[in-house]
Amino acid sequence: MSTIVRRPAVVKSHLPDIGRCLYGIPHQKRSFTIESLNATKGDRERILILGSGWGGFGLANKLSLKDYQPLIITPRTYFVFTPLLASTAVGTLEFRTAMESSRSRDGVEVVRGWAESIDFAKKTVMVEGALEKRRSNNSPGGEGQDGALVGGGENSRFEVPFDKVVIGVGAYSQTFGVPGVKEHAFFLKDVADARKIRKRILECFEEASLPTASEERKKQLLNFAVIGGGPTGVEFSAELHDLVTDDLSRLYPSLASYPKITIYDVAPRILSMFDGNLTNYAERHFHRQGIQIKTSHHVLAVEDGAIITKEEGRIPVGGVVWNTGLAPNPFIAQGLKGKFPLAAEEDGEWGVEKDEKAGRVVVDNYLRVKVKHEETSQVKPLEDVFAIGDCAWLEGKDLPATAQVANQQAVWLGRTLNKAARKNRKELGGAPVRVVGEPEFKYRSLGVMAYLGSWKAITQTDQGDVKGRLAWLMWRTAYFTKSVSWRNKVLIPVYWFTNWILGRDINRF
Amino acid sequence: MSTIVRRPAVVKSHLPDIGRCLYGIPHQKRSFTIESLNATKGDRERILILGSGWGGFGLANKLSLKDYQPLIITPRTYFVFTPLLASTAVGTLEFRTAMESSRSRDGVEVVRGWAESIDFAKKTVMVEGALEKRRSNNSPGGEGQDGALVGGGENSRFEVPFDKVVIGVGAYSQTFGVPGVKEHAFFLKDVADARKIRKRILECFEEASLPTASEERKKQLLNFAVIGGGPTGVEFSAELHDLVTDDLSRLYPSLASYPKITIYDVAPRILSMFDGNLTNYAERHFHRQGIQIKTSHHVLAVEDGAIITKEEGRIPVGGVVWNTGLAPNPFIAQGLKGKFPLAAEEDGEWGVEKDEKAGRVVVDNYLRVKVKHEETSQVKPLEDVFAIGDCAWLEGKDLPATAQVANQQAVWLGRTLNKAARKNRKELGGAPVRVVGEPEFKYRSLGVMAYLGSWKAITQTDQGDVKGRLAWLMWRTAYFTKSVSWRNKVLIPVYWFTNWILGRDINRF
Asked: For A78, which residue in chain B has the nearest alpha carbon?
């Protein structure tokens, strides 16, 4: 298994030079070459980046291509600008304005697939390529071929060697084992989620406007439940309220009195990361707008068309958006478990350290993954394995699982690796790059902000709190200036402007 | 069955005033009211418009709301600006730039559903409301809930009375009974089709770029077949070629030599509606670009990943786009068949006249639907039933099934009805509006145009033929100035500009 079979020269001769061709796996029928990747590698280290979110994509954009050969492994070959997701879910922005292609930087290679496991001794990652789930097309206009991605199985599995690997696979949505959440609720972590939500909201209004819709059915369809009173849930509720009052009430005047939005949370307050006076402001604002807040409420189950709460029983709803925090990524839970040797030398077996609460990978102040010796219980960081973002847990600090943290870690790691490589090149003559000795990673909170609807927001920074219209302006400015590509720097203000003047696009397709 | 049950007053009291509530159907559990629709009707005639394409949507926008109460019945509550579909299928434009909401005009009511049948004696249309096909959501990121529309069955069926009805339901794609077309080929008639095509093209490049993709698989995935050499097939091939050469070859440099586009047609020439010298120009242009044209070729079957032609056998392909003309809409074929009385008076039974070739509804020069007496074989036009667009066949003229024809018919019918209503109001004191006596409909061809890729097009008008860059400019200008809404007048040039400067968005989601 661990022998690497190079393609025989006779097969090679009629294969083209493919930048993305990699190692051959003995048990596969086809064999591949790492030669073209090696050919462009030069004396650079190859950094495998697992994931293309705030951590992985941010790092890939920072790394010096003179010193490193970055290769992203990700099932989702685009970066999602998550703060704009709620806006796209209601049509304030078009979906693609919250996306950047992982391939946007020349020199950064991307392979679409899932990392399955890391061989720390061989320094390789086993990847399963992601393929489209094919179904036959339905009749014209149908959407039979939904194109979700699935693992391609044995035939799409391959091994990629690395000099360094950075784990930035993020986290999944936490459901706390509540039955029916995965089947009947919408998450809001990807653009595909946002699209499903937008479609569902418009569908609810369409169905409710049918002459055959009963009173009861209309009330159900236009009752929207948001589970989780964190910033995502709050911003989505606010954006949904904007959509309903600005656009849908005008287009479906007969339904204007029906829509209801309710935020449920087990905690006694929403927006717990904000100061009390900002939370009070948010609650008062929502109260005026008619958005209900049901704190200290427990959702016991989600069904098709209803939620069950401990406090109020069965509540018929048209749609449920679920935002109650993060669960470990399966790669962290499954791919990094067990004991393994760290090198060819016999020094026993090691296991990746994880935090007890959320099962994230423990990293030190250099964001290096820590491992523990099976027998001696010795703990040490790996020199070439890093973890950043929602899947990492920085020992001793309880950093929130936010885009801000992931982004700062990506920027710090990129800069530090670049600096270390320059030093290495000048002073050490090409030994493996080591980050130790550079300044450690330090998180600096830039504050938190949340949109509350009707052009009002709250922001809380070290410099003070702001609420209302000015906070909204800061909120928009921050997101606009942080949007990555020129395309989105053009499109986002165009959409804001046209949708402000002309209303949101409410076509469901 | 024909008795109309009004809601009892006691039920009514707690129901809101709903603009879209209509007739009650006795066999349903719920009953509805036409009162609110009647309340706003005044002395206007109610015009039921079946369909919201070039015909139906065009007409709804023309009708004077002083004289008429338009109500659109359509399963697709948006108008598709079909000439831009090919552009959206490759990302030159965003999907929504080719859409306008059917609800965009205040005072035009819209019900989402399928017309099932027309009762000519009672002057009602039986409608089945369209509902979302629900499935459970998949795991996060998946697209389990695809949201295609299906008939809601008995519980969503209702009857709508009319003064006049206009049939503009369009046509379906013609498959000539070739097996596998519906299952494995893409049509290009709706925005949902364009989205499926765009997703598929990007998927083909993604899968081909996996290190595990074999030589054979790469050739298959990047081989695109376009069946039908009419303007739609030609423009799609041209746009696809632009996407591949402008964007994808740069993003997947290792795949640059693979993509192949082939147009198949049974006819000896493509673009048969153009003059020979323009067709020659198009063929030479495609030849230079490497787009293959296989005329006099017969596709016998479409499979998952292959087409079978009579001339060349099985050809592995990554995607098939099918554009070989139109088939009758099921409503025309099924909903308007059989014999029926025209009025309460005993004058025997009548049947709707259809053309023998394509089964379209025969209309006279006033676009009135013609019926034939069962026994006497007497043929006469109905005064209050019109048909326009692809589902209508204007007797004696062989008009092409194009947007131009449908649009001119919609504009003519709207203006003529408005004029007749004004005359009626002034001179006839409120008798039913009659179009006879007004100038008849005459089609005036404004010419044909087709985009050929690389900023070149061909246009053919009475004033002469134009080809190349100037024709492209005319093509863009024509489509831009014809785009309906202000939103799209802003967004279309923004997308053209940003995609020209920055490349197309290639994110697949």
From this structure: B507
